Amino acid sequence: RKAGGFKMEDFFLRKCWFTLVFLCFLATIMSVSSVTHYSVPEEMEDGSVVANLAADLGLEVKTLKTRKMRVDVVANKKYLDINKDTGELFIAERIDRELLCPLKTTTHCFLKLDATIENPIRMFNIEVEITDINDNAPHFRRGTMHLDISESSPVGERFSLNNAADPDVGANSVKDYYLSASDHFALEIQTGRDGSKFADLVLQKALDREQQAVHNLILTAVDGGVPTRTGTASIIVRVLDVNDNAPSFDKDKYVVDVMENSPIGSLVMKLNATDLDEGSNSDVVYSYSLYTSERTQEMFQLNPENGEIRVKEMINYEDLKLYELEVIASDKGHNSLSDVTVRVEDVNDNQPEIEITSFSSHIPEDAPPGTVVALMGVTDIDSGVNGQVVCSVPADLPFDLKPSPDGQSYSLVTRNHLDKEITPMYNIAITATDLGSPALSSVKVIQVEVLDVNDNSPLFTQSPYSFYIYENNKAGRSIFSVKATDADGGENSVVSYSLDRKSPGPTAFLNINEANGSIAALKSFDFETVKSFQFQVVASDSGSPSLSSNVTVNVFILDQNDNAPVILYPVSSNGSAEGVEEVPRNVNTGHLVTKVRAYDADIGYNGWLLFSLQEVTDHSLFGLDRYTGQIRTLRSFTETDEAEHKLLILVKDNGNVSLSATATVIVKVVEPKEAFAASDVKSSAKDDEETDVTFYLMITLGSVSVLFLISIIVLIAMQCSKSTEYTSKYLQEANYDGTLCHSIQYRSGDKRIPERSSVNEVTRKCWVFQK
């Protein structure tokens, strides 16, 4: 290979490149095309393969059965079908083009099909052209034609002959005519407006009745098929004597318009022909010529006497738009011809038709917008704007219609997301309206059911829940219940309940009924141990996947009077509530002898203690404060008073069923010296014990004071930062004067803040009690 020479590799590379570009261009054209075209000749045997439709549409053969592929022929018999095992389109029934397309208004005959598959739904438009074969021979409607020609007819005069008909089209139709040998006549071939061939008999030599009164001729029609087919007819010409004047029409050609669906018997037009002869030679008779087709003669009735043309059968624009009539006006001898063209005007007399070719009656509510619900074809056999159809669905429905490129089919698709809980079923009225005036329409209603999808979580009737229960409940019994509902249907709406064991709370001592949400306590609650708690309940539906929601349950334990008062002082060494107090005889009235101290673990009224004297030696000598438990002298002692007095004090709470305790105080009246001596002995015994206690007490009091000051500063700062509305919303108006500190703490835990003066007062009382 010389330098700079042509490289064979470059040639092949360029050739591959151009081939690739051409194939890409061809694939682009095919992908854009909306209709797949095929062409097959008529009269093929049943089972003959047209093409591999699956391969041409890019479908996998093994999925044709599962995707339920089918072929529907539009407005015709099912001549074609598809083999789902091979994907081949084959002839299901012999096709006769002349039967399928009887009108020869066009040389093309198409069979339209819709191929539909599911999962997902797709529809393909297929157009199969049925090509003509030469399977029909020309034939004359009349096997023998009779012509009466005057012997005075000039050379060159033309006489119409019955043309031959051939159902085939194109080159297979009538191509030429031949006349048997004759000295007087010849043929002249004419071509009609629609391309059909017909022959005129031309007189080329004058006739002489005396020499030959009848001429017998043979007319042969030949088509253009391979091999050719022929048909013949006999022509019998009778030579007549001279009749000088032939009838004459006032026009050589008439054009008239008639509306389709004109009533039978309505007048189309009236012809007028005159004859200058006299007598019987001037009588004009009207008739159709041999050029007028039998179909035209069936549609229009010609009155032979007056030339009126009337409608004989219903005219349909969709069958034929133009009729050509050739009328002969004849007297006793001569004929006159006139052409009449009847143009049919279209009337919007056909409603559009809707045909559902594929339909999914159940659509899940989570189907995305654009999901195909149904495929349908729309036809209107009117023409022009009368045959143009527009389809619509109500605007308030979440559906749209998408037209195909040719406008002859539509896809019904979802426009928005569906919600079964709002609308479980749709009745979709599809309206097809043509563009004629007045417009005609038709309606087809399809019903679409929305399938439920688990898209709603259970919803609790309250959030959060708050329950108040009394302490000392019976273990194992239901104490309260929760309720949740699910807007879904069927299994998706069945709700089950469970406790969130991971959430904080005493869930180990609780049990919940999975079916109805009833919650039972596995143990009895004690207000004095726990006053409130919180836990989480989970509600789950039975859908797949399951959806759930949780709710917070706040439980508040209510106090019951289940604790009797406990005597704190006096208490003897053996634990009994009994004490001895020595009082000098010379004390004044109101002297504090002692104070009975008691405690009740309950709160509120259940823990509010009252003191009373049950037994006393001398009622005039001692008095007991009902609320504080202080015992004081009511008067001074006298010499006659006894030296020892026994007091029995009853301490009871204020519960509905009051509980109580008793304490015994023995008061010994001593002389002042003995009292002071006894006091000194007690003081000396306690000095050593209290030395260390005093030190620790000082440290404790100092710490408490500092914390108290910090708390007061923080409370003042928080109070200043809150609005007046917030303060008024949460502050109590009641001033509760309790005797126990823990009742204040309980109320504070319930976010009930007493007034500042009440806080100070109760704090003071608690401090006195502790002291």
UniProtKB/TrEMBL annotation:
SMART domains: CA. The chain crosses the membrane at residues 695-718. GO terms for biological process: anatomical structure morphogenesis; homophilic cell adhesion via plasma membrane adhesion molecules. Residues 32-140, 141-249, 250-354, 355-460, 461-567, 582-681 form the Cadherin domain. GO terms for cellular component: plasma membrane. Keywords: Calcium, Cell adhesion, Cell membrane, Glycoprotein, Membrane, Repeat, Signal, Transmembrane, Transmembrane helix. Its main location: membrane. Signal peptide: none annotated. InterPro entries: Cadherin-like_dom (IPR002126), Cadherin-like_sf (IPR015919), Cadherin_C (IPR032455), Cadherin_CS (IPR020894), Cadherin_N (IPR013164), Protocadherin/Cadherin-CA (IPR050174). It is a single-pass type I membrane protein. PROSITE patterns: CADHERIN_1, CADHERIN_2. One of its GO terms (molecular function) is calcium ion binding. It is found in: Cell membrane. It comes from the Eukaryota. Pfam families: Cadherin, Cadherin_2, Cadherin_C_2. Potential calcium-dependent cell-adhesion protein. May be involved in the establishment and maintenance of specific neuronal connections in the brain. This is Protocadherin 2 alpha a 1. It comes from Nothobranchius furzeri (Turquoise killifish). The lineage of its organism: Eukaryota, Metazoa, Chordata, Craniata, Vertebrata.
